[in-house]
Amino acid sequence: MKQFKHFTANSNEKIYMIVHRHWFNIFRQYIPIILLLTFTTIVIIILLVLTTNEESAINNSSFNNSILYLIGIAVYLIAWIYGFFIWVDYHLDIWIVTSSRIVNIEQKGFFSRTVSELDYSHIQDVTSDIEGILHTALNYGDVNIQTAGTHGHFIFRNIPKPEKMKTLVMHLHRQALTKKTHPTYTQKEKEIQKND
Fold it and tell me: For the chain, which has fewer Cβ within 10 Å, the N-terminal or C-terminal residue?
C-alpha cells in the first residue's frame, strides 16, 4: 500500500483494500502460450534432428537450419510480447476501496487507461457471484455494484474473496448513508451551500 500513500484525496481518507484479479485468471491466460512454446520447441528439435541426419532425404543445409531458428525466434518473440501484455493488463487493473469511495483503474492495452470513481452514497445494490467448481474451490468471482442514476454499475471481475469485498462495500455504504443523514453532517452541508 506504500505505492498509494499519496492517492487519498484528503487526510481523513483511508485505503482499506487494493484488489487485483485472482492469480488463477492470469495463469489460465498463460496456458495457451506455454502450450504454443512447448509445441514450437518440440517441432524445431524434431526438424533439426531430421536435417542433421545424414541418411535423411531432407537437404542438410545451414540455410534450412537458419530458417528454423528464425521461425522459432519469431514465435518466441510474439509469445513473449503477448505474455507481457497479459501481465501489464493483470498488474495495472486495480480496484481501490477507500473510506469514502471506490476507484476502478482499468488498463486497456499498453497506452490506454480508464479511471472511474464511485461514491458510496450512490450505491443501490451489491451482489457477489461465484460460479463453477474452480471458482468455488479457489474462492474467486465477481462483485457487481449497481448504482443510481447515470453511473450504471461497477464490476469487480475475477477477484479473490468476493464475499469479503461485498461485505466491506456494504458496510462502507451503510456508514456513508448514516453519515449523510446524521444531523451534524446535514448542518455542515447547509453551511457549505450558504458559503457557495
Answer: C
